[in-house]
Amino acid sequence: MVAARRRYLEAGPYQVIADAVARAVLAELPIRGATCLDAGCGEGYYLRQLANAAGETHALAVLGLDISKWAVLAAAKADRRMGWVVGSNANLPVLPVSVDRLLCMFGFPVYGEFARVLRPGGRLIQVDPGPDHLRELREIIYPILKPARTLEPSVPAGFALLGAESLRYGIALEAPEQIADLLVMTPHLYKASPEGRARAAGLTRLALTVEVRLSVLERLPTAT
Asked: Which of 145, 125, 143 is nearest to 133 (CA)?
């Protein structure tokens, strides 16, 4: 899964998302002494893109965390500009009020822990799949699609919503290997039926919709 994710992401289909995340992280960020945690970093693609965007303009201390030791090992081998650690969002190995920016990319947010480690005024950048994300693939591997959720997500306690944007665009996967990599790196591989996986394995090309919601939430000052 880690290798498939690396191959797929490095080919560039989610570069638009990575660029938007980097802009959100760097917006109004102090040039010196700022910290960023990616809670669920996988093999580190989004942090590598962030480091490239920050360049020499921002002195940004970055830590990537993932529950998979294989993903963390791959990330550490690929880029030594930042720290990497195996851990869980349920118990972040990070000091309280020590983080300026926190990423949660298609992950499992634990808002209580996020609020604990973020400084007041720090920001959580969260990316979640939209209703039509990879819809064409899901229509192939599932007999029936679940109805899309229409309600706006609630703002978690301790946070205020600064803004949100939807990113929607089309991509084309031109090889069976790329389609297989996408399926392996998503939960759909394990949720699909054998028949659905077989239909996906027979594809040679696939046009897809990418749709995500990027939310920026600010950690409120601790109540006294």
From this structure: 145
Cα separation of 103 and 26, whole Å?
Answer: 12
Instruction: For residue 190, count CB atoms less than 10 angstroms from its CB and return exposed for 0-12, middle for 13-18, buried for 19 or more.
Output: exposed
Q: Is 122 left (phi over 0), alpha (psi -120 to 50) or beta?
A: beta
The CA distance from 30 to 47, in Å, is 18
pLDDT (mean) for 83-107 = 96
pLDDT at 223 over 50: no
pTM summary value:
0.93
Most confident region among 53-57, 72-76, 138-142, 144-148 by mean pLDDT: 72-76
